[in-house]
Amino acid sequence: MKILVLNCGSSSVKYKLFDMTTKTILGQGGVEKLGMRGSFLRHTRADGDRVTLEGEILTHQSAIEYILGVLISQKHGAIRSLEEIDAVGHRLVHGGEKFNSSVLIDDEVISKIEECIEIAPLHNPPNLAGINAIKELLPNIPQVGVFDTAFHQTMEPHAYMYAIPYSLYTKYGIRRYGFHGTSHRYVSKRACEFLGLEYEKAKLITCHIGNGASITAIKEGKSIDTSMGFTPVEGLMMGTRSGDIDAGVVTFLMDKEVLGTESASTLFNKHSGVLGISGVSSDMRDLDKAIAEGNDHAKLALKMYQYRIKKYIGSYLAVLGGADAIIFTGGVGENQSATREAVCSDMEWLGISIDSATNANTHGIEAIVSTPNSKIKIVVIPTDEELMIATDTMQIITKS
């Protein structure tokens, strides 16, 4: 069975074509700068063949036309015909309270996704554009939606509610939804397989740490709390997002800097976080270079970034009553050993002991980086959201 996975953003469309018989990637890539000058498609085949195609790619439909075209091209293709594609799985960012699992997409599902646009105006429209493009281009192919928010729908009201008038929740749906759910679900399950734990009995803390970052407390296979909230700006300090901030600061700055809602959103989403504190970059590699050159603001940014991860882990240990494992994933979580070391240091009193030598030599691979006597295992598990989406898609279309 061959599954095409699409991740449609506002200015990009990323894709992977899986052969689910072997769980291998036949082809992958993406369209970048969608709707802008200099748009292009990069495609890589399983045998290493690569190609970059430039063109005027203005819409999601034209982007997906390019993708389907290169997948069956004689020179660079991964399959002979589009008829080989059995289904398309979509990464969908926001399902609100309407979806607590992945679903087969039909007109009713599309209507419900449209109803969530108000709480996800940046993400749901491009997600819908990808669905509609496949409806037009491959009308007989089943489509499945896999929601970032669905995994967190198991949180209890005391964990997801904000302490604002309850009427605002009923009127606007304002609550913590959480994101990165597909990644948290994948790495938590994979970590249990890797460690030989029973998923339905384990207590886990998953740390998806990258330019966007979130931490989730998982008990008996269910998300019971997560750091991101109504939007992805809440929680940890991130590459360009502020993370947790006093709401009074928001209104104060809007008043003093004469900011409208759009400008305020841009400030806290795109000009804050690691970039805002360091003044250097949102990329940890650039930050490391600046620190090596003695940049004090870069040092402060990294210390704040690591400190907040440690704080969330501590709070989730309290919520869970301890843990079997702490799992690191995402670009930073998988590759920046210094951050894992800083986060897990001086935590021996909680049963957390990192193996510095093993940790320093672990980059982008599955590994246990805790010491043998650590009561709580520290594990690195590279995430694979696309494989999770493809797996859900296969299971749903097989049942339907």
Automatic annotation (TrEMBL):
Protein residues bound to ATP: 14, 208-212, 283-285, 331-335
Entries under Pfam families matching the protein: Acetate_kinase
Cofactor: Mg(2+); Mn(2+)
Details of cofactor binding: Mg(2+). Can also accept Mn(2+).
Keywords: ATP-binding, Cytoplasm, Kinase, Magnesium, Metal-binding, Nucleotide-binding, Transferase
Residues of the site described as Transition state stabilizer: 180, 241
Binding site for Mg(2+): 7, 385
CDD domains xrefs: ASKHA_NBD_AcK_PK
GO cellular component term, pick one: cytoplasm
Pathway named in the protein's UniProt entry: Metabolic intermediate biosynthesis; acetyl-CoA biosynthesis; acetyl-CoA from acetate: step 1/2
GO MF annotations in UniProt: acetate kinase activity; ATP binding; magnesium ion binding
Stored PROSITE patterns: ACETATE_KINASE_1 (PS01075), ACETATE_KINASE_2 (PS01076)
Catalysed reactions, semicolon-separated: acetate + ATP = acetyl phosphate + ADP
Binding annotation for substrate: 91
Description of how the protein assembles with itself and partners: Homodimer.
Family membership noted in the UniProt record: Belongs to the acetokinase family.
HAMAP family attached to this UniProt entry: Acetate_kinase
Chain's role: Catalyzes the formation of acetyl phosphate from acetate and ATP. Can also catalyze the reverse reaction.
Protein's name according to its UniProt entry: Acetate kinase
Species annotation: Microbacter margulisiae
Lineage summary: Bacteria, Pseudomonadati, Bacteroidota, Bacteroidia, Bacteroidales
